[in-house]
User: Fold this.
Amino acid sequence: MAQQEGRDFLEALKQVTPARIGVGRTGTRPRTQDLLSLRIDHAAAVDAVYGEVSEALMQELGLFSVRTCAETKECYLKRPDLGRMLSAEGEKMILERCLSNPQVQVVISDGLSASAIEENIRDVYPALMDSLEAYGLQQGIPFFVKGGRVACMDAIGELIQPEAFVLLIGERPGLVCANSMSAYLCYRPRKGTKESSRMVISNIHRRGTPPIEAAAHIGTLVSKMLEQKTSGVGFMI
Assistant:
């Protein structure tokens, strides 16, 4: 009876988590099916990190691209600080093409998962634009940052002085999901902004927070941020 209860509990647990639990083994080794599944998911995670967001996708969305000071993927992974700083050419392009003092600035970045952008942005981006428009919010000129870290929003904030900022960025992939995207929100990000001043909606993908639902929620949060003139720990939901 106890063994059956244990099996029932394990099966019930498997229904509510994608984690690898109770996979079993053959002798001292994992079962072939489980080992192959692990290797597939690991390969997907590596591809997400080292992949590139296609230029065709950026053109489809009408976005221009800039890059950070992390000139290569290896540099990006080893020097997170360089992913927070814009290249001189990138700064110049932003100043030339973007609006100064927009109410809401939206930026997209590959981050640690290019596949997260490829997989989700076609749903999230237009729905987010619709949500911001529904709240009557004035939007800046959106663009793409290659090799960006979350705090690149601070460097961008210094340049164009937005009131609210939305950064859509690829999350660090795991062995459960390699295409998860996050949305970081901040009120008036500038150099020196504390991490406690940022807010995030994470796990945006088809098996997590649905992309279109996330976009609508982002619009609501941005509207409240502007009303309260704050974000992060000082924000009241």
About this structure: The CA atoms of residues 85 and 197 lie 19 Å apart. The two ends are 48 Å apart (CA to CA). The longest strand covers residues 164-170.
